Amino acid sequence: MEKMDSPEFVLSSLHSAPSGSPTPYVPHARFCIFRGMFAELPDNKHNTAPKNERIFETDMPTFTTDVRMQKVPELFGSSAGHAKSEDQAQGSGGGGPVEAVFWAKEIQIQWRIKGHAFVVAPDIEGEDAESSGVRTVKSELGKRMRVLQEGKEKEWSWQTELTAQFGNLSPGMRGE
Length: 176
Hints:
This protein is of the alpha+beta class.
């Protein structure tokens, strides 16, 4: 991944099919930028946001998106909880099935990753941190977070991770 000029991948998710369709979902694919593995944010000299110490490692690729993009309701609407409205697709949650395809042109290799994608949103910590979406995200992602530094787990912050992820984006990508 480090050798790729631009770590792009195609992300496919499921979108509710139009009424009367013979199937409940249709696939939607789009290019995304790989931002690193969750809890293992790569160094960026331009990122002034606070960053978690490397207490965990994971095998969960991350990307960033805007809540107004179709990916977000797709991840909620095709998840086990099947969000029925856009109101239910706000904040942390989701878990819809996805497939990511990386093409490493430099070495002529393709990687396919299938799994479930979750949204980590600003409600991940604080007064709304007990919503079912937050509990689901922390539970499902927590199962894949391997401890590197025993006894320091409570020092790691979900909110710090979220802030640092967006700090790694250029000002234009952050909407500034």
